[in-house]
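Incident log, support desk, overnight shift.

02:14 A customer reports that sequence design results differ from what the structure should imply. Their input is reproduced verbatim below. On-call engineer (initials T.W.) acknowledged and began investigating.
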């Protein structure tokens, strides 16, 4: 008796995800082409961007509160 395509593909997927002991295999990012020094530079740029973003958001909220102050007595 032959197995169905669904059974076969499910078995292949299970083999791809699990090792021989039935434990999940660690995820390997095959598209991670950065070298360690590149990762450090990317992390530094991202930290600087997030810091600037935080300042811009705070300034925008302050400007919005000047135009339309928050309602007094309302608790969200």
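02:41 Re-run completed on a clean worker. Output:
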């Amino acid at each position: 008796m032959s197995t169905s395509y669904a059974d076969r593909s499910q078995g292949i997927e299970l083999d791809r995800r699990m090792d021989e002991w039935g434990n999940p295999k660690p995820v390997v990012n095959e598209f991670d082409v950065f070298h360690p020094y590149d990762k450090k530079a990317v992390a530094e740029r991202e930290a600087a961007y997030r810091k600037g973003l935080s300042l811009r958001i705070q300034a925008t909220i302050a400007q919005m509160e000047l135009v339309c102050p928050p309602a007094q007595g309302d608790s969200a």
